[in-house]
Amino acid sequence: MTEAPSTNPLLDLKGYLSACQKSYEKCIDVVAHQHSIAGLEATIRLHHLKFDGNGRPMISALAETLYGHIIDYCLAVQHRTTPLTSIESAKLTKEARKLFIHPTNTPANPDTTGEAGEVLLYFLLESVLGVPQVVAKMELKTNPNDELKGSDGIHMCWNEQDKLVDLFFGEAKLYQDVGGAITSALKSIATFHDNGMHQHEFSMVTKYFKYADANVKTAVTQLFEFGAPTGEIRINHACLIGYDWQEYGSLPKLATPALTEEFKKRYLADSQRLHEHLQKRFDTFQKKHLRFEVFFIPFPTVQEFRDAFNKALD
After folding, report:
1. Tens of pLDDT along 24-44?
2. How far apart are CA 209 and CA 136, in angstroms?
3. Helix, strand, coil distribution of the chain in percent, nearest 5
4. Is 172 helix (H, G, I), strand (E, B) or coil?
5. Mean pLDDT calculated for residue range 38-56
6. Alpha carbons 196 and 203: distance in angstroms, whole number
7. Which residues pair with 229 in a beta bridge?
8. Across-strand partners of 234?
9. What is the sign of the dihedral through the CA atoms of 244, 136, 278 and 191?
C-alpha cells in the first residue's frame, strides 16, 4: 500500500534540511536552563563548543564542519544533480569558495567580517531548530568582496502545532563583548524593519527560492500577497551571539568528561548575566510583535573562530 501524497506542499519544507546532524553533535553541545524573557516571545539557547580529548575547545573541528557545508549554504539546488559526483563536488566547492571574502588576515589587521558567524547560524538553524535555508543569498552577491546585505540568512519551515509557516531571518554577531553583540543584533533587526529591507527579502523568497520543486515554490509564493506576508506566515528572528569568555583561561586540567561538567556548571552560573543583558535590551526594543531564537556561544576568542574558518576556507 502506497502512502497518500501530502495535500500541503509546505509540509515538505523539512525535507530540504542539508546540515549534518552527526557533525553538529560531534562539536557542539547545549546547557539546559530555566531563564525566560518578559515582554515578548524569545527562546534563549545556551550552546557551546565541545572539548577534544586534550581538553581543547573544538574550534577547528567546527570550522572544518562548516567548510564541509559551503555548497549547500552558498548554492541553490536546482542547478546541480543529486547526489553529487566527486567531479561535481570539487567544481561546486571551488565555486562556493569564490563567494567568500577571503580577507587579508594578520595580527595587525585581523579579519572582522561576519561570514564565519553567518555560516554557523545557518548550521544551527538547520541542526537545532530543523528549519531549512530557502534562499542561497551568497550566490546573489554581485561582488564577492561585499558582505551580505539585509539579514544573515532566510529560513522557513511548517509549524505543525500552530498550522502556519515560520519564516526566520538570521542575525549573526561575533563580538569580544557579549553586551555589545546583543545591542548590535537588535539594532540591526530594528533597522531591517524600519528601512523596509524585510519587504525586499519577502520578495527574495519568492524570486530566488532555493529548491526545484514547483509545487513547493508555488505554495511558498502564495504565502505573500503584493509583497506582504499573509496570515499563514509568522516572522521570527534567529540571533547568534558569539563572544569572548575569559572563563576558558581558568578551567582546571581535567579529563574531558569532568572538564565538560565543570564548564557546563560555570556556563550555567554565568547564564544569569547573559539573561540580564538580553532582558535589558529587549525591554527597550520596540518591535515586540516579533519572535526570537537567541543562540549564545562563548569562545576563548571570537577571533580564533574567525581565523579557523578562514584557514579551512583557504
Report:
1. 999 999 999 999 999 999 999
2. 8
3. 45, 20, 35
4. strand
5. 98
6. 12
7. 224
8. 166
9. positive
Does 3 score more than 50 pLDDT?
Answer: no
Q: List beta partners, residue 292.
A: 42, 237
Residues 235/169, Cβ–Cβ less than 8 Å:
yes
Give me the count of residues in the chain.
314
Q: What is the pLDDT of residue 106?
A: 64
Q: Residue 151: CB partners within 8 Å, gap ≥ 6?
A: 169, 170, 171, 192, 197, 201
Residue 4's pLDDT is 46
Give me 135's grid cell.
534562499
Residues with Cβ within 8 Å of residue 150, at least 6 apart in sequence: 137, 192, 197, 200, 201
Residue type, 217: K
Q: What is the distance, to the nearest Å, from the Cα of residue 221 to the centroid of all Cα atoms in its chain?
A: 23
What is the pLDDT of the chain when averaged over all its residues? 93
Burial class (CB in 10 A: 0-12, 13-18, 19+), 103: middle
Q: Nearest Cα to 18, choosing from 68, 93, 59, 85?
A: 68
User: 260-269 long-range contacts, Cβ below 8 Å, gap at least 24?
Assistant: 260/29, 260/50, 260/51, 263/48, 263/51, 264/29, 264/31, 264/48, 267/31, 267/46, 267/48, 267/298, 268/31, 268/33, 268/46
DSSP string covering 64-119:
HHHHTTHHHHHS-STTS-SSPPHHHHHHHHHHHHTTS-----BTTB----SHHHHH
d(CA 125, CA 94): 25
Dist CA 58 CA 51 (whole Å) = 6
Residue 55's nearest CA partner among 267, 248, 245, 237 is: 248
b/e sequence 249-267, b meaning 16+ C-beta within 10 Å: eeeeeeeeeebbeebbebb
The cell numbers describing 174, all together, are 561575533
Contact indicator for 290, 236 with CB cutoff of 8 Å = yes
